[in-house]
Task: structure prediction
Amino acid sequence: MVLAVVERDGDGALTAESAEVLATARDLAEQLGVPVAAVAVGEAGDLPDDLAKRGVAALHLLQHELLADGGPACLGEALGVLVAALRPPAVIAADRDGTVEAMAWAAAAVGVPLATACTEIRPGAGEWEVTRERSGGVLLEDAVLDAPVRFATLRPGAPAPSETGAAAEIAVHVVVPDLDASVPRARLVERRQRAAGMTLSTAPVVVAGGRGVGSAEGYAVLEELAGLVGGVVGCSRVATNNGWRPHSDQVGLTGTRISPDLYLACGISGATQHWVGCMNARAILAVNTDPEAPMVTRATWAVIGDVHAVLPAVVAEIRRRVDDRS
Ligand SMILES: Cc1cc2nc3c(=O)[nH]c(=O)nc-3n(C[C@H](O)[C@H](O)[C@H](O)COP(=O)(O)OP(=O)(O)OC[C@H]3O[C@@H](n4cnc5c(N)ncnc54)[C@H](O)[C@@H]3O)c2cc1C
Result:
């Protein structure tokens, strides 16, 4: 069987990424002539019915108190034991931070490699081929996966597979892994509700600042501008490293990848690790003193100047126009 690692959201519904993982697992299973099985953590809930409709023949439910807050190492340990027992030709999961880490633990336990950030998986007689995103998605790599069990994580938006009919029935197996308290390397200590309203991911306009802003106080004018244009503030890693902004504001490879209608990059050079986070913006306006900065040369529009002069002038002009209208 092809084993799909599936996850549920706070309401118990299958996540969108897991639906894609299942679809890819189903496509692989059809090519290999084997069934699809799924593995999830916790109680069954509506999951068996939902999975049966998606052509899944068996569900393995991992249940252990450490799996609730024990971090990826616990899931990886439990998954590794299950995979060692089932020996499926492939184990597929979503390319999310914690899940990738759990897959890495599991693959290491089984003694095989893990291919992360796959956009395509092509089974072969022996070696399988995968296409993977590298450098945050600016490069695509074709690689060979040579192992008896192929572990792979899938980037969102992998090609949609063909439709399959529902499985006749789904077998549900409860698995209680043998985990002890020394397994968790990290522990979840608190869950916080995300603040209501716009986020970096959903805002139509992001006004982001980098080293050129110069200080935490320097972001006041970016906050003001974001408020006037209905956006939110973002930043580069220099700003988070310097303690000027929280990590939740960081755009980039190790921050959030965004696709707003407009990205204002103020005093940001456009290093690759930042660029991969904002390259899907519909339009980019760079404000920078350096006309050769990568962000300037790639931007839709650029203003060559000091953010401390340009941004207050833009804010003043917007305020003047708003006042004229009222
Ligand atoms: C593994 C790894 C992951 C990383 N992940 C991320 C990530 O997720 N996000 C991220 O942002 N970075 C990330 N980085 C860091 C990245 O490589 C850059 O160091 C960082 O993006 C640079 O931030 P910056 O553009 O603010 O600063 P700089 O590169 O120093 O650029 C500052 C820019 O401001 C301009 N400037 C200076 N003063 C002014 C002024 N007064 N007015 C106007 N312009 C001015 C300069 O001309 C320059 O272009 C990562 C690095 C690594 C190694």
About this structure: Residues 210-212, 236-238, 250-255, 267-269, 271, 273-274, 277, 287-290, 293, 306-308 surround flavin-adenine dinucleotide (CB under 6 Å). The radius of gyration is 23 Å. The chain has two domains: 2-175, 205-325. The domain at 205-325 is CATH 3.40.50.1220 (Rossmann fold).
